[in-house]
Amino acid sequence: KRGDFETISFWLANTCRFLHCLKQYSGEEGYTKHNTPRQNEHCLSNFDLSEYCQVLSDLAIQIYQQLIRVIENIIHPMIAPAMLEQETIQGVMGVKPTGMRKRTSSFPEDSGHSLESILKQLDVFYYTLLQHGNDTELVRQVIKQQFYLICCVTLNNLLLRKDMCSWSKGLQIRYNVCQLEEWLLDKDLQGSGARESLEPLIQAAQLLQIKKKSQDDADAICTMCTALTTQQIVKILSLYTPVNEFEERVSISFIKSVQNLLKDRKESSQLLMDAKIIFSVTFPFNPSSVALETIQLPSSLNLSFLTRV
């Protein structure tokens, strides 16, 4: 639920800020060099905070993982309808692959999930995280994780559904990916690794659109599809369905020549991507510029026994 996301985002920001403050005033040289002389006067001299930092860091990791799971629950049902089912390019997508005209959709058109609704949801996540004061570097890691999930769910659906493996679907996927790339550009998130996590999906879209007949075509596919496993490449080629009667299916001999070219690759034999993977998170040190002597403590906290130093 969105409320859960907001609560967890808020506490993630608080926990990380507390962790940074403990480090900043721990007296450790690696952190004190970022302080003003006045801030260094406030550093603790009789306490070793390293154990507390470890406990807080572990807690922040748990909160981060909880945040990612909540995001997954919100965004997962939207991905396949928006990335594969919705006809974002009018005119091209009206053509159903031969023999597929009667198939009913697993994702009804009225599900309301469109690429636009995914982009709006990404906006909500992004701006909420920033509004709560989460570090920019942490926000970038959250976005990368979301884009990895979008890639996983879309590619896995593609690999399991014959009606999705056509030239026109390749065109639609590439268009949708371009919209996601535009979103990253707009938020200045190019260096977050999010764009790179879409690479398997980008290559799958190219594979659907590239020529699949000659030995040169087979060589080109092997050179291009570095982010896809042999099993995924072969599956897409064997599922590929012509859009019209002038186009042929991919021949078995062509698929075999691609398999032969890729036989020495060292890679996973898994067909589907693992959507449950959570990349390890880091919390780069981000000191506060706030001077402790300027902080006002609200009387409602009943902390009058504290003496300001």
Question: Structural class given helices, strands, pairing?
Answer: mainly alpha
Uncertain spans: 97-110
Strand runs, count: 0
Overall mean pLDDT stands at: 90
Q: What is the percentage of strand-forming residues?
A: under 5%
The number of helices is: 11
Determine the N-to-C terminus distance. 44 Å
User: So what's the overall shape?
Assistant: elongated
Main sheet?
Answer: none
Element order: H for helix, E for strand: HHHHHHHHHHH
CA gyration radius, whole angstroms: 25 Å
SSE layout:
Layout: H1 2-24, H2 29-32, H3 37-41, H4 50-85, H5 115-131, H6 136-160, H7 167-186, H8 199-209, H9 215-224, H10 230-239, H11 252-262
Helix pairs in contact: 1-4, 4-5, 4-6, 5-6, 6-8, 7-8, 9-11, 10-11
Relevant terms:
single chain; about 300 residues; mainly alpha
Structure, described:
The protein is elongated and about 85 Å long. 56% of the residues lie in helices and 0% in strands. The chain contains eleven helices and no strands. Mean pLDDT is 90; it is low at 97-110. With 309 residues, it is mainly alpha-helical.
Briefly say what this structure is.
It is built from 11 helices and no strands. The protein is mainly α and 309 residues long.
